[in-house]
Structure formats: structure tokens, C-alpha cells
Amino acid sequence: MPRPDSKPAIVVGVDGSDNGLRALDWAVDEAARRGVRVRMVHAYQRTGVRHHLSPQANMSQMYDEGREVFTAARAHLAGGRNAGRVVGTALYEGPASEVLIDASNRSPLCVVGRRGRGRLASRVLGSTSTTLVAESAIPLVVVPPEWVPGQDQGRHVLVGVDIPPHDIGPLDFAFAAARQASAPLVVLCAWDLGASASREVRSALGDVLGEILAPWRARFADVDVTVVVEHTHPAPALVAHAEHARLLVLGTSTRPPRPRSSLTGRPASHFGDRQGGAVARAVLCDAAVPVAVVPAPCAVAPGALGQDGVTQEGFRRTDPLAQRAGYFARISLSRSTNASESS
């Protein structure tokens, strides 16, 4: 059996703020569930009057600040049941987002507070979080000020999905998180279909989601799954359903915005367009629970779908609009056939 520290550590950004300590609390709890360790990372930035410091004075101030931040973080964890999960610290000079991206390139997860130091520390997405959401190559968890340790007991994991999924990462991550926490999973598809959508299209969504989720249900048979379909804008739907969740999982996409049609509408996980990302920002700013943003493509579990014949590459090669139309065509054909046989 491998030792807990034989796996890459979860990276958590700490900066001396309460939000950074909250992110640390979440990270050590998650590390305990995964059987891994945590590495604290602090970014020292040479801003303001620091630009006028000599190299020696700047280095001294950098180490003094790092020592202060890490000492306070360890004191915060002292006596906690998972305090021993912190395996080490790392101090670098540079913008926090760049430092965390470099420090976490071999880690399974990066964790940050929604906003660090500053006057606006609540319902505002900080510049570090904003950059990491767009640029991180590994899953990122953003912990809000409202989250407190111990509140997750008995709560579900929530994941927003598109039809078809842009990639397998968010679903892999969500199902695995639910299994690790022995928690139920809620799969939400929220579409702003508009008045032009036919009743058949609206009623077919549940069947389409069932077809999409079948491989995951087979692989994670021990996870209790609830599917929710709402005909509304995705951002408020996700925030509302996340109110009593332990974790909200979103995906990202680098595709340009897609044209709307009576079939496509606006799907729940149209979160990550780096040209806009309005839904992602709204959810990250308003959600009162930790939000995991899984980049696309992201190999959360390499080869995890191989036995089901579904691969990450398979999702990327298929045109999403054509695949979505195909889903609805099969559902319509199936319903028509069943109706004919019944008559």
C-alpha cells in the first residue's frame, strides 16, 4: 500500500488573508479524503515601494513575509485532525497566478480563496482566481468566504453538464468527488431554451441526459445520482442548487460562442468561453460553496472511460452541434417507434 506522501501534493495558495486560510482548511480536508498531502505556496510580489529596495533588502523582506505567512498558517491548523497533511511550503517571487500555475503543474489539484487581501473580499472574484480559472491546466477549487469547515457533512456534489459534454473531465471529477466523500451527486442541465423550443425537445432532455450519463453510472454504481433539468438561465439555477451542496463542479471550453437554435438553447456548462465566461464569473462570484473548475481537456482520470469505449479524444473529434442534434434525433425516433408499436 503506497504511503500518503507518495502521491503528488495538493497545492494551496496562502497569502495571510482569512480567505487563504479558508482555502487551506478545505485543502487539508480534501487531502485526507484522497490520502495525499498538501503543499502551501506563497507568492511574494515586488510592488509599490518594494521596487526601490536593493536585491539584498528585497530578498530579506521576501523571506520575512513568507515566514510570517507560513507560521500563521501552521498556527491556524495546529491541533486540527488533518494538520499533519501539510508536507511543506514553497515561496516564490512573482504574480500569484503565475506562481501557482508553475507550482502546481504536477499536482492533482490547486486550491485558492475567492479573493485574497483587500477591501473587497466577499462577492468579488479576485484577479488571481480569475486568471487561474482561465489558465490553469489542472482542476482548480475556489473557496468562498461563506464556507466554514465541517459544514459539508451530508451534503451532495453538484455538477453542471452540457449536451453533449465538451469533455469527460467535469463528470469524471464530480463522480470521483462524490465517491470519495460518500456523498450523493446531483447532475444539473439548465437550458434557456426560449419560447420557440418545442414541447418534444423540452421533454426529451431527461432521456438525452440518461444516455449521456450511462457510462458513468455503470462505472460509479455506488454513487447515488439525481438528474435535474431546468428550463432557465444556467447561472441562477446552479447557484440555487449549490446552496446546500458540498462542492459545485464546472467545466471550461475554449470554443467560441455557439449559435443558438431551437435545439441548442444555452446549456448549463457553457461556462468557460475565455472570450466571455459571464456564466462562470456569475457562478463563482455568487456561489456560497467551493467551486471546482475542471479545464478542457483535462485528464482527471487517464483512460477512465476506456472500458466503456468512450475517450477524451472521442469527445473532441465530434462536432458538438451535430452530436447534440443526433441525440435528439435518436430520442425522437425511439419515441416514434414506441408509439407505433403501441398502436
Task: Provide an overview of this structure.
The chain has 343 residues and is an alpha/beta fold. The chain folds into 2 domains: 4-143, HUPs (Rossmann fold); 156-342, Rossmann fold, CATH 3.40.50.620. Helix content is 40%, strand content 16%. It has 10 helices and 10 strands. The protein has helices at 18-34, 55-77, 96-103, 127-135, 169-181, 199-219, 234-241, 278-286, 312-317, 320-342; strands at residues 10-13, 38-44, 86-93, 110-113, 140-143, 156-160, 185-190, 225-230, 245-251, 291-294. Strands 3-2-1-4-5-10-9-6-7-8 form a 10-stranded mixed beta sheet, sandwiched between helices. β2 (38-44), α2 and β3 form a beta-alpha-beta unit. The longest helix has 23 residues, at 55-77. It is elongated.
Instruction: Please give the order of strands in the largest beta sheet.
Output: 3-2-1-4-5-10-9-6-7-8
Overall number of strands:
10
In sequence order, what are the helices and strands, one letter per element? EHEHEHEHEEHEHEHEHEHH
Number of contiguous helices: 10
Shape annotation:
elongated
**Rg calc:** 22 Å
Question: What fraction of the residues are assigned to beta strands by DSSP?
Answer: 15-25%
CATH class of the largest domain: Alpha Beta
Q: CATH homologous superfamily of the largest domain - what is it?
A: HUPs
Low-confidence segments, ≥5 residues, pLDDT <50?
A: 1-5, 117-124, 254-276, 298-322
Biggest β-sheet, characterized? 10 strands, mixed
Helical content (DSSP H or I, runs of 4+): 25-40%
Report the structural category.
alpha/beta
Mean pLDDT across residues: 77
Can you tell me the CATH architecture of the largest domain? 3-Layer(aba) Sandwich
- In angstroms, what separates the terminal alpha carbons? 60 Å
How many structural domains can be distinguished in the coordinates? 2
* Annotated CATH topology of the largest domain: Rossmann fold
